[in-house]
Amino acid sequence: MKFVPQDAFAGNTGYRLLPLRFRRLPWDDDRVLVTSMAGDWLIAQHKDFERVVEGKLDCTEPLFAEMEARHLIAADPNHSTLAPLLSQYRTRKSYLEHGPALHIFVVSLRCHHTCAYCQVSRQPVGNTIFDMSEATAAHAVERLFEWPAPTLTVEFQGGEPLLHFVRVRTLVEAIEQRNRSEGRTLRFVIASTLHDLTDEQLAFMRDHQFELSTSLDGPEWLHNANRPRPERDSYQRTIEGIERGRKALGEDAVSALTTLTRRSLEAPHEIIDEYRKLGFHSISLRPLSPYGFARKTEVRNGYPMADFLQFYEVALDHLLAINREGYFMEETYGRMLLSQLLTPFSHGYVDLRSPTGAGLGAVVYDYDGRVYPSDEARMLASMGDHAFALGRVDESVSAWLDSPAMQRVLAAGVAEALPTCADCAYVPLCGADPIDHYARQGDTIGHRPTSDFCRKQMGLFDLLLQRWEQGSATDQRILEDWALRATRRGIAREAEAA
Amino acid sequence: MNKLDAKVQLDGWAQPTLLKVATLPEFASGLFPLERMVLDLRDPKVRTAFPTFSRLPWAGFVVNDPEQAPAGRPWVAIPPETLNAQPGDVIEVVPETSKAALRYRRGANNNILFATERCNSFCLMCSQPPRDIADDWRISQICALAELIDKNEPSLTITGGEPTLLGSGLNRIIEHCANALPHTQLHVLSNGRNFGGGMLASSFTGLHPALMWGIPLYGHHYGLHDYVVQSKGAFAETMRGLYALEAAKQRIEIRVVLIKPVVEHLPALVRFLYRNLPFVEHVALMGTEPTGFARAHHDELWIDPADMSAVLADSVDYLTKRDMRVSLYNLPLCTLPRSLWPYARRSISDWKQHYLPACESCAVRERCGGLFAWVTPAWTSRALKPVLEGEEQCTSH
Question: Which pLDDT belongs to residue A1?
Fold first, then answer.
């Protein structure tokens, strides 16, 4: 038998660059993050990376094999294969496979709160013309099953959907009736303040395995300041609602989100500690969105994205400290970004996809029978701008997809093809949000150097990567744990409640 | 170590014949045709019942001594010291060479169906050096064998050589197993190279209810993998093959032999597995079997398991955290950190499983897979020593 030494298997020397992007690390000028088209990556010395680009890397250097294994370079094409890169790409983009899975039903715009940051322009409690009619609901159920997704998440939103619970009930019953022949996997979510929950409502939600999503902005003083009710008891009612929900549906059935006003930015520790006190293991820290009433009150409540990023950094370090103490708590947006950095998988979050999740991952059926590709699009509509209305529930799904609104969303919906994004090292892990850019900048394509969306993404990716890269072994484990849990859960929560 | 074949005395057989060794339960089960069974006259209960039984159309008889053989009927003499053939086993009698061989052993931990001696790789550590011979006759032999295997056999392994070199013959074997043994897990060990092109992978879709492919990968880039399997382009072919199997909805296990050049890059390999093949169901990290080509490459291949502890622990932890199931094969417990014991399997086939004198006093011998029978001092870990009573409880290493 005759065996051949390893160097004989190197193939022809030399290599080609595969599509790659890079970014000098903000915390270390000497090193760069290099990402592949599928979002695999490594961190290298800048001078070594320069040699890579110049074609001077030697195939015996360890970096050569590393760059090959992460699909940043391709050596001898007769011996190598692009199959793993293509597989990674398919895996990363697998959210495209089955069409929209998230279906938001706005059953009423009525609400008993008068939040200054309300994104949807809620209506007074007695104004029933802002309720979804029976006929609209019936059409919406027909349309829901025209989509091919094997799993359908049906999320009820408002206003306050509990104020029109009869519609929630008839929709659930009609959907389940229809599903007897369809055989899809159904998931029901309700985004609600949980105030004034009746036993009857809870029993119904328990019978249909609802998940509850509510708003909790922090400790009592902050929550009541952000979310005023005439009785000044929103916090107390929310806490009661959470407790009753947990009792009826199980501890894990209730999740909460925090909307951050300028007031909130001063209280990162207090907000997180409040969640811990209430036994939550998950928190969502969301900056204000420029929609609905939030736009009108921007001067009073708003803040620059840099302030949010500063807040987030303090919050992240506090969360890490809490986790180090042995109490598991994750931040949902950070978890999602980390899952993109640290796993090869796709994600269920509709606002950070490329191609965009608007219309491709989510559909919104509004109370008045209009249909939108995203919550943001209906928020714009509630401000009088119907630019992104896909059509009405009595029209077919294909008519919606053919609509000028959908074409407009798609034309700006591929991040890899957008100016500035196209060259960004984070783009394989990021997404396009044409409607957000339209809302903020008046243009679906947008201008990245002044884009708050981009500032937020870049800021958070940099922060999370730095904490992971420079963190202690314990901190690395905590952040990896967030990322791995996100993918283990399969499709995580997809939408954010108003 | 138990022998799998032996010279025997026999008579009345016209050609090589596969036979199920039968006593009363095998007869009573009614699952196998009498014409393909040999009645085991070594069994006292059978001897008692013999007068009634003898007239049935048995293929022949197993005896201890030729003098026990009934006149005018085929027989084979297998006294205990020749071959450990037990009721339920399948033996092959070969008249030209006067040999009997064990082809299936009831209750053994790892029964194999040997598909071919041919292979398209030439691995540095191959324990079964390939031969380029025409052995397609094995296809029908395996099918015949499958018919005589116990219906409640939990699992069988099809190995070689490279089984896909049988072409559609492999499909025939797998389909035949699905029909004859629908409850038996089938594990096919292939290098996966032939699945990359054409329709081969999809031809297995739905063919068998419990089929798993065991496919080796030795590096995170072609330079290393191709060297280990001594075949240019093999890495690319195997990777393409793995994706073709995934597309064909096949279950996949990745098998990694822990030779020195592979261990040196194991962290990069497990990362590569997670990033590129997260759909594989199981990863087996396996100690080297010191036979075949491996013996000739001791210096290039040998790394003492004691020197792998840290990298093995990290790799197992990495994969486990990512929901990729891992097992460790062919590594004695005393060479592994305690934290890895739950992953160690008694993987060495019982007939070639071996323990050293040092193992006599070991408290965990019953849980340990031991060593390959052909182990030599050069292939033995310096960490090999009996685990003492009480030590096995220690969970921190």
Answer: 55
